[in-house]
Known about the structure:
Number of domains: 2
Order of helices and strands: HHHHHEEHH
Strand order of the largest sheet: 1-2
Radius of gyration: 28 Å
Amino acid sequence: xxxxxxxxxxxxxxxxxxCELLVQGHPAGRAYELAxxxxxxxxxxxxxxxxxxxxxxxAYLQTLRDAASKDAAYDRDNLVGFLVQIIxxxxxxxxxxxxxxxxxxxxxxxxxxxxxxxxxAAKQLAEIMGWNKPAEVKVDIxxxxxxxxxxxxxK
Length: 155
């Protein structure tokens, strides 16, 4: 009769913290240390690799990464919308809290709010949308292939 497999225990607080630190961008060994484990340096690096190999840790990591990826989704359509917003929004409508406020300066003369350049945004939009005329490339094929090979061999 086979022994019953032990039920897998849920993630503990240190494992959760380790995964969260990894998703935040910390190196594995450093995340292991910051999570509260006692190993340091190279030992922490080795332990971190082992910990990442555990099924429940790996699954939790993937869940966190999927959630972070979904939150950070910024695709081509978002960029096009932002560039159009830059182009269409009058400068006088950009306020301190606006997503178009690139820089705010306060000095003796008052407050200055800068927004991204409209011409730069228009050029970027044209490039993304493929509105620019393809660049023309001129190729000189008057030289014979044998001459080119001879020149390369003589070097």
